[in-house]
Amino acid sequence: MSNLIFNYLVYMVYFLGMGLVSSGIVLMPFNIMRYSTILVIGLILFISGTMFNEVVINKNKLSAIEVTKLIIVSLSLAIGIGMISGGISHFKENPNYVSYLIPIGIIVSSISFTVKNNYKLNKQNKIKLCVALIILALAIHITLSFFASSMLGNGGDIFNNMNNMHK
C-alpha cells in the first residue's frame, strides 16, 4: 500500500509540474512575474518527479554527470512539451506568440526526448531528423501564422471573460 501511495505522489508531482510549466510558458507575456514563478515551480516539481522516478522507483544508480544530464534534458523536455501543450490550450489568447511557441516546442522536445532516451543515431539519421523537424516546424509556424493573422481582436476567451466580469 505504501508503494502505491509513493508512486502516485511521484507521478502527481511529475505531471503537476508539467501542467504548471505549460501554463507558465504560454501565459508569461500577460504577467511576467506571476507566470515566471509558476513556470519555475513547475520545473522544480517536474525535475523532482523525474529524479524520484529514475532513482527511487527505477532504482537507477546515476553518476553526478548522469544526474546533471538528466536534469538538463528533462528541463528542456518539459519546456518543449510545455510550449506545445500550453500553445494548443491558449492559441486564442496570443496567437502570434503561439505561432512560434509550438514549432520551437516540437524541435526542443524531440531533440530532448532523443537524448534523454539515449537513441543512437548515425550522422545520416541525425541530419534527416533535423531536416524533418525544421520542415515540420516551418509548416506549423506558417499555418499558425495564417490563422493568427486572420483572427480579429486581441486576446482570447479567458481574458475577454475576465474583462467582462469586472465591468
Automatic annotation (TrEMBL):
<feature type="transmembrane region" description="Helical">
    <location>
        <begin position="12"/>
        <end position="32"/>
    </location>
</feature>
<feature type="transmembrane region" description="Helical">
    <location>
        <begin position="127"/>
        <end position="148"/>
    </location>
</feature>
<keyword id="KW-1133">Transmembrane helix</keyword>
<keyword id="KW-0812">Transmembrane</keyword>
<feature type="transmembrane region" description="Helical">
    <location>
        <begin position="97"/>
        <end position="115"/>
    </location>
</feature>
<feature type="transmembrane region" description="Helical">
    <location>
        <begin position="38"/>
        <end position="58"/>
    </location>
</feature>
<feature type="transmembrane region" description="Helical">
    <location>
        <begin position="70"/>
        <end position="91"/>
    </location>
</feature>
<keyword id="KW-0472">Membrane</keyword>
<protein>
    <submittedName>
        <fullName>Uncharacterized protein</fullName>
    </submittedName>
</protein>
